[in-house]
Write a structure and sequence with these properties.
single chain; 119 residues; mainly alpha; 53% helix; globular
Length: 119
Amino acid sequence: MLHSDTKTEGSAAVLPLPDVCLTALKIRREQQNQARAVAAEAWQDFGLVFTTRWGTPIEPRNFSRSFDARCAKAGVRRIRVHDTRHTCGSLLAALDVHPRVAMQILRHSKISSTMEIYT
């Protein structure tokens, strides 16, 4: 199943959006607009940010295969998609995002978990 209910009410909370993320999402919107134009009538709008070239949801296994291929192309060690949470935490620290904001983004329940990444 591609969509499911969240585990808790807090899982559906609004997250802070650092500027670097906002910039990436604006670029993604442009890419998606271009894909929508190319697909024309074949485009299926599901209201998603990340889709196939036809606007349909990305299958999780296809996403994992694409992620692995991009790791190989970039010449970086392959990690599990879930492990990118640690990469996100490291990037937030490098960007000097306040630990409380990082805690919200990473969905940690305790600041001590976030601080382990920052120290």
